[in-house]
Design goal:
heterodimer; A: 334 residues; 3 domains; 4-stranded antiparallel β-sheet; 48% helix; 21% strand; elongated; B: mainly alpha; Arc Repressor Mutant, subunit A; 3-stranded antiparallel β-sheet; 53% helix
Chain lengths: 334, 125
């Protein structure tokens, strides 16, 4: 056999696309930070000293020197960006992991630099930073720029090339009885109560916040984003058939699809979303596993070519995993 | 739930599908409110005609087992009856048939025959 199947997938398969991940996830944040910091420092003669760096409901309430502030901002952004790049570089076997790492790193530096530059821009020409006009819009601008830049760069990250395999499915992987003349499919719906609860609590906090701050401008976009996230990740349909395994959100996106010819082995596992994935939803977990994890309990774990691992929490995972093994193995015999 | 069909079997595909749903209901795998896949999705998964699935779903609806929702597939309307007594009786039939060396085919034929001749609503107990 020309291709070697590692005994423990996920450890020895090299991470692909490391050069683009480094270019976009490391070099780009450094450039953004350098440009932003240089622009901020070039305004020094126009700016009050100290500058306002924090704002409360009654105007500026935190002040500091321009230089230390630019430095702190730059270091904070770069530390986070290095974290995102490391995820893509060391664990980015699946496209989602690379996109998340790179997009997060670039997005967070874009957010921090935009926030800093907009806060400083409103202070140009002032003598005393205490006279800084209302700057409630600056975090919104920062978040908007960060999201747009982060998502745009994530789209530039190369995706996964098709990686079909002809390796037989291991004999000890579970199977279901299926005659050669039979066709089979397995379908389950899964819903997340945790996501709905978290969303309800967050909406409540946002509502209280908008009353306290008397500024619905900050809260409204957050509520819209939250509603979209919940609507898209609170319910999934999991299907196993001759095409492979697919987990699709009720809205159609997000979805995970593993074609049958990329399935190495499926098994039923117990999933702890909080411990293994840091939360619920469409997530990247430890060791670069990608998961649609909506609740604690039964899940299908699919070992996929390229050292990738996909996890979907769903009831009766044993049947789904066994059918996936059965169909994959039958296809390869032919 | 798991759907298994056999295009080479004499039983029509829609009947095979409906039968599997009935079995899943009887075994308690499907309960009231459970969603079946949309006819389009199920037809694609099994590589069969969508009208075959619709025919199966319509039969199940006519029996009052599911409700059909436009574009959303079928939702279980009535749970499997409390069928533990039936399961016990079936197990007993299988036991006796084995003891007497009666083949499964003959046993099923006997059951079908008994089912046909029994007066509806008759309760022997």
């Amino acid at each position: 056999m020309t291709t070697s199947a590692p005994s423990s997938p996920g450890t020895r398969v090299p991470v692909p696309h490391r050069a683009p991940s480094t270019l976009l996830g490391l070099l780009l944040p450094v450039v953004l930070t350098a440009l932003g910091s240089a622009a901020a420092l070039s305004w020094r003669s126009d700016l009050p000293d100290p500058v306002a760096i924090h704002f409360g409901p009654d105007g500026p309430d935190g002040f500091g020197s321009l230089g230390s502030n630019v430095l702190i901002n730059a270091v904070m952004g770069l530390v986070l960006a290095v974290g995102g790049w490391a995820l893509a570089f060391f664990a980015g076997r699946a496209a989602l992991v690379r996109r998340l790492g790179v997009g997060f790193g670039v997005g967070i530096t874009a957010f921090l630099q935009t926030l800093q530059l907009s806060i400083l821009a409103v202070q140009r020409g002032l003598v005393d930073a205490a006279d800084t006009p209302d700057a409630a819009w600056t975090p919104l601008l920062g978040v908007a720029v960060g999201l747009v830049v982060g998502f745009a760069v994530a789209l530039l990250v190369p995706g996964d090339a098709p990686a079909p395999t002809n390796e037989p499915v291991p004999a000890d992987a579970p199977r279901v009885p299926l005659a050669d003349s039979q066709r089979a499919t397995w379908v389950r719906h899964v819903r997340s109560r945790a996501i709905l609860v978290v969303a309800a609590v967050t909406l409540l906090v946002l509502a209280v916040l908008s009353l306290v701050l008397r500024s619905p401008t900050v809260v409204l976009p957050a509520a819209v984003v939250l509603t979209l996230v919940v609507a898209s990740t609170a319910s999934f349909t999991v299907t196993v058939d001759e095409r492979g395994i697919a987990a699709r959100s009720g809205l159609g996106w997000p979805r995970i699809v593993v074609p049958l010819n990329e399935v190495q082995r499926a098994s039923a596992v117990r999933v702890s979303p909080w411990k293994e994935f840091g939360g619920w939803g469409y997530r990247v977990g430890r060791d670069g596993r990608v998961g649609i994890v909506l609740r604690t309990g039964d899940g299908i774990e699919v070992r996929r070519t390229g050292g990738r691992v996909v996890v979907v929490t769903v009831d009766d995972a044993a049947t789904g995993a066994a059918l996936l093994n059965t169909l994959a193995s039958r296809r390869r015999k032919r | 739930m798991l759907f298994r069909i056999d295009p080479t079997a004499p039983e029509p595909l829609f009947a095979q599908l409906a039968g599997q749903v009935r079995q899943a209901l009887a075994r308690g795998e499907l309960t009231v409110g459970s969603r079946l896949p949309t006819a389009r999705d199920l037809a694609m998964s099994l590589d069969i005609n969508v009208h075959t699935v619709l025919r199966a779903y319509q039969d199940l609806r006519d029996e009052g087992l599911v409700e059909l929702r436009r574009g959303r597939g079928a939702v279980v309307a009535r749970s499997g009856l409390d069928d533990s007594a039936l399961h016990e009786a079936v197990a007993e039939v299988v036991r006796v048939a084995r003891r007497l060396g009666v083949t499964p085919e003959t046993t099923v034929a006997l059951l079908r025959d008994a089912h046909r001749t029994a007066t509806p609503g008759e309760d022997p107990s």
